[in-house]
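Much of what follows relies on a compact textual record of a protein's fold. Here is one such record, which you should read through line by line:
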Amino acid sequence: MRLSRYFLPILREAPKEAEIVSHRLMLRAGMIRQEAAGIYAWLPLGLKVLNNISKIIREEQDRAGAIELMMPTIQLADLWRESGRYDAYGKEMLRIKDRHDREMLYGPTNEEMITEIFRSAVRSYKDLPKNLYHIQWKFRDEVRPRFGVMRSREFLMKDAYSFDLDAEGARTSYNRMFVAYLRTFARLGLKAVPMKADTGPIGGDLSHEFIILAKTGESEVFCHSDYLGFDTPPETVDFNDAAGLQAIVDRWTSLYAATEEMHDAAAFAETPEAKQVSARGIEVGHIFYFGTKYSEPMKAVVAGPDGAMAPVHMGSYGIGPSRLVAAVIEAGHDDAGIIWPDAIAPFQVGLVNLKPGDAAVDAACDDLYAKLRGQGVDVLYDDTDERPGSKFATMELIGLPWRLVVGPKGLAAGTVELKRRSGGAAEAVSADGALSAILG
């Protein structure tokens, strides 16, 4: 993509309303624009990152056996009355009426709707287990939306819902998502620690939040430092091996880790002092097992092997892609701007033409641009007439993994300048050497 044709509304000054790093940088880098309190338009650069994150989430959900569908954002109030949550949920739920005066709501979550979809089609234990997920926009009318997309009113959510015959099967489904989440966050360049968590309005008696440590985290968390060195489950993990999954979960829950709400000071004190981590944390995922909390009142029942009808056991599993964009920035930035992990960067290479209109420089840039794109590399080519300093500042701000600079002096010496955003120094290399480094 040529920058002269792209929509990238860079801000040179930090907006006054932005309280945390990710909010400031997302506004400055032209990733989002606030349209109302807690409601944001996702501009092209931000949307590319959001889509890249969603792609990884989909791949790991699919790998774990979950099946994608799409549920609407608007739900009938009657569904929530069946579960008993309509009146209990609180003011965070945006309640509306259609032109026929039917009570509806903008979904803050989808337990009721997925239960209704499931019960309309599944009647026998032979059709279990099932795990259905979607990636859809949600709305929760936060009393005080803040921190940009970290705590917004409208947000993108991946929510999955598992259905099993009994508690044993439901625990295996829970473990599948537990392991899938470990893999997902690692692929996003994050070290997430699963911590015992409060179930909140979702309900149930088993829940873990996946937390990344960050100075700007919204709450205090406590864990054993060894978690930060644990290896991620490999791509070859067998999601049909119940015992193997349980062994992974047992290891990742063998040491102390808890959110502020679930913290037990006495239990934490048993952790060797040198291994105690008390820090701020950002929630990037939350999983729940809640048994028959929804299936029983909503009559989502199946026939078991003995023919008896019984409510299914359920769990729900959430990851917020829009929130993750901010979390990744909080975990990876410097004074100049964002530092994107390769897997989710909006472009892999920022190609900078230092003298547009110079025939030799234009030709060299066009050649590099074509070769990189031919190898499937997404390139943002700065072909504008901006000053070099401004071009460099833009590339540092938007945080692309590689910066490739072409100018008259370098070409005269047979070199281009290549810099790795994550701490690398600028180097003069041949054009072929730059291609080899970028292509790996």
